[in-house]
């Protein structure tokens, strides 16, 4: 059977429409999904929206809408954005989906029956922005450092999940990379968190939040929104909440896709995933994801992106200005993958002009024009540079997407240099022209082959153009800005 590859993004909150941060994760996941599909692997790519909880409920009320109505609206915006960006997800999971909700109920019932969930009382602080309980240690000047508001004091009856029970087992698995956390500094961060702070039991139910999934054995409570959301990674494959051996067979498309090959996200949700989510899987007797990869966080001109600063970049703005494939390129090349990055419209404009309009676009136009003018007949083969392909594969396997793009652009720059050096437009003899242009055209074809997961439409166009018997000058790929 073909190797399987299952990749997920977080389910995004519907408290706001998609921005460039969500877009980064989703495009990166798409690049990986397309890459693995092309390798012939049985691939499943899941994304979706996280629609329950206090934050969404409050936002809906503010907009004078019922929570579901409000969630429908924002979810539609996410679906539209991903379609526009040519995202190849196999499913889009909404946590308000009936089947998901039923499965969450079933899963929690199982955890309750085995004693991993118990009735307790919660007294402490809650940050609605994070949808997380906070300890004094987490606060800066009494405020949540991410949301800049003091958390609410809470005291209520709740059902707790025995997170502490799984502390040792999880730490062992993280240390041994049975749950691989990448990049390595993120693994170290989590190991030290386990060792210094350890895991405390966590409330898995809320009594005064109606917008959620009712706890099956006590419907006066709803399920904690994170517990609800994590299970999307299973229900998105068609899992119905059944535990034990049966559910491991034949999820989605008749393939057992769990465990995920890689779960992609940023540092803001690393801790909850490697503690609560991983422990839930142990409690449900399911295997842990193979890898959790933490990519960097985007800042805009050195500032946190936010509505109040008015600097939010939406995917639709980028597409309008640069087009779909250029947007995908600009995002994926904006930062070292796994490191934070600072972005701005100025930097995008510059890179668009340098790498795309004057780079790839100009090169393909110049070359195809020369080939057409000289009526050359070439027979080029894609993937003919084995060394290049090997280097690229190594980078892709190591999540070094920005470096993979640099490698492709090295090839393009080299093509440009050859043309400038040899000046084939000055040559009289057709044979001599062919001798210069043929290998350059071959390199472009190879580069386009490697570019496919990043810029699927542009790559296809170039491949079609340069593998034709008669190469013709095409439309300009990237108009200058
Ligand atoms: N709903 C939860 C996740 C539940 S998963 C079981 C959530 N949603 S979110 O909408 O806030 O998305 C957070 C994720 O969006 C980050 O982990 C990252 O993948 C992406 N990003 C959001 N802002 C980002 C940046 N500024 N930069 C890079 N990625 C960012 O948390």
Care to describe what's here?
With 481 residues, the protein is an alpha/beta fold. The protein is built from 16 helices and 15 strands. It has helices at residues 20-38, 54-62, 67-84, 98-113, 167-175, 184-196, 225-230, 232-235, 270-283, 315-322, 324-332, 345-373, 386-397, 401-422, 430-451, 456-466, and strands at 4-13, 42-50, 91-94, 117-127, 132-134, 152-161, 180-182, 202-203, 205-206, 214-215, 218-223, 262-266, 291-295, 298-300, 341-343. The strands form 4 sheets. A 6-stranded parallel beta sheet has the order 3-2-1-12-13-7, with helices on both faces. Strands 5-4-6-8 form a 4-stranded antiparallel beta sheet. The protein has a 3-stranded antiparallel beta sheet with strand order 9-11-10. A hairpin with a 2-residue loop joins β10 and β11 (218-223). The chain is elongated and about 90 Å long. The model has no long low-confidence stretch (mean pLDDT 95). 5'-O-[(L-methionyl)-sulphamoyl]adenosine binds at residues 10-13, 21-22, 24-25, 50, 229-230, 265-266, 268-269, 297-298, 305. 5'-O-[(L-methionyl)-sulphamoyl]adenosine binds next to β1, α1, α7 and β12.
């Amino acid at each position: 059977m073909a190797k399987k590859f299952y990749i997920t993004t977080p389910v995004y909150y519907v408290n706001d429409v998609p921005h460039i941060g969500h877009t980064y994760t989703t495009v990166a996941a798409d690049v990986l999904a397309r890459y693995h599909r092309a390798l012939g692997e049985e691939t499943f790519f899941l994304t979706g929206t996280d629609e329950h909880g206090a934050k969404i409920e409050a936002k809906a009320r503010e907009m004078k809408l019922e929570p579901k109505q409000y969630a429908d609206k924002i979810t539609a915006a996410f679906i539209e954005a991903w379609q526009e960006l040519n995202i190849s997800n196999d499913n889009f999971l909404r946590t308000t989906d009936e089947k998901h909700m039923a499965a969450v109920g079933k899963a929690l019932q199982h955890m309750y029956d085995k004693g991993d969930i118990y009735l307790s009382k919660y007294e402490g602080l809650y940050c609605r922005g994070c949808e997380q309980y906070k300890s004094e240690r987490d606060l800066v000047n009494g405020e949540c450092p991410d949301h800049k508001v003091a958390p609410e004091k809470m005291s209520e009856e709740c059902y707790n999940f025995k997170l502490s029970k799984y502390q040792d087992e999880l730490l062992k698995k993280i240390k041994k990379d049975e749950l691989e956390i990448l990049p390595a500094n993120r693994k170290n961060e989590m190991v030290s968190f386990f060792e210094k702070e350890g895991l405390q039991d966590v409330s898995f139910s809320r009594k005064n939040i109606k917008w959620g999934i009712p706890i099956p054995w006590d419907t006066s409570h709803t399920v904690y929104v994170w517990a609800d959301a994590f299970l999307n990674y299973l229900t998105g494959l068609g899992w119905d909440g059944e535990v034990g051996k049966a559910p491991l067979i034949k999820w989605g498309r008749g393939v057992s896709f769990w465990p995920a090959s890689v779960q992609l996200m940023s540092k803001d949700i690393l801790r909850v995933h490697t503690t609560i989510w991983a422990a839930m899987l142990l409690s449900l007797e399911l295997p842990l994801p193979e890898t959790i990869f933490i990519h960097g966080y985007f800042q805009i001109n050195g500032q946190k992106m936010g509505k109040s600063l008015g600097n939010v970049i939406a995917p639709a703005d980028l597409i309008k200005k640069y087009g779909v494939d250029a947007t995908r390129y600009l995002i994926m090349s904006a930062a070292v993958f796994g490191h934070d990055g600072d972005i701005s419209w100025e930097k995008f404009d510059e890179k668009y002009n340098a790498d795309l309009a004057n780079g790839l676009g100009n090169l393909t136009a110049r070359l195809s024009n020369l080939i057409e003018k000289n009526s050359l007949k070439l027979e080029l083969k894609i993937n003919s540079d084995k060394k290049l392909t090997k280097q690229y594969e190594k980078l892709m396997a190591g999540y070094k997407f920005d470096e993979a793009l640099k490698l492709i652009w090295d090839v393009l720059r080299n093509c440009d240099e050859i043309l400038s050096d040899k000046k084939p437009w000055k040559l009289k003899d057709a044979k001599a022209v062919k001798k210069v242009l043929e290998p350059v055209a071959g390199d472009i074809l190879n580069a386009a082959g490697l570019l496919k997961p990043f810029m699927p439409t542009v790559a296809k166009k170039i491949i079609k153009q340069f593998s034709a018997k008669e190469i013709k000058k095409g439309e300009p790929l990237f108009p200058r800005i």
